[in-house]
Amino acid sequence: MKKSVVCILGLMGLTVIACFSGYDDDYYHYPWITIADAFTFENEKNYQVGDTIIFTLSFSRYLDEDGYDNKLDIYETSNSKAFFYSPDFRKLSIFSNSYEGVFVKEELFYSPNETVNVARLNTGTNTYESRMGIILVEEGEYSLSFDAVNFNSNTPYYSEHIEVNITNFSKDTPETHYFRVGE
After folding, report:
1. Are 88 and 145 in contact (CB under 8 A)?
2. DSSP secondary structure string, 8-43?
3. Cα dihedral 35, 128, 99, 133 sign
4. What is the pTM of this model?
5. Percent helix, strand and coil across the chain, each rounded to 5?
6. Number of helical H runs and strand E runs in the chain
7. CA distances from 19 to 7, 15, 23, 29, 129 (A)
8. Is the CB of residue 160 less than 8 Å from the CB of residue 74?
9. 137 in helix, strand or coil?
């Protein structure tokens, strides 16, 4: 009798867990898409304090999606004219001998259209585009990584929301850009 009560309680527990672990595939489906040559740099690898490291981003609204023959129209899917992103900016720490994350104050970002970390749809070319920079105010060794940058549409937590994984496969611009800032 004791074993059957334990079995019944165990089955009830598993049933409760199964109820909470289920999810709607359509609601949580975020395509995992790789884009080649998304980021490019406009200037050198060695800078002086006060210089600005500038990079551009450009990717088509029509993207390949693994497992599908047709291209995914991310504008149609997300209904978003802009995608937000954040590259990984790091500085080499002498204490840890490793690159550690750096929080960049908003006033140290540069963008000709005054929008940073935003790729906007250019309807003339059907591409999402961004041009921005970071004003370098401290000397040291830095890295700027575009490996697995997530792009989020401006409609979070709805079924139209998509995330786009950007991986920068390029011979000229590696996934992580290392540079030095001197006095």
Report:
1. yes
2. HHHHHHHHHHHHHH---TTTS-------BT-EEE-S
3. positive
4. 0.69
5. 15, 40, 45
6. 2, 15
7. 18, 6, 9, 19, 42
8. no
9. coil
Enumerate residues 6+ apart whose C-beta is below 8 A from 131: 54, 55, 56, 57, 111, 112, 113
70-127, pLDDT tens digit by residue? 888 888 877 788 888 878 889 999 999 999 999 999 899 988 877 788 888 999 999 9
Q: List Cα–Cα distances, 64 to 22, 34, 101, 107, in angstroms.
A: 28, 8, 31, 36
What residues does 54 pair with on adjacent strands?
Answer: 133
Find the distance separating the first CA and the last CA of the chain, reported in whole Å: 80
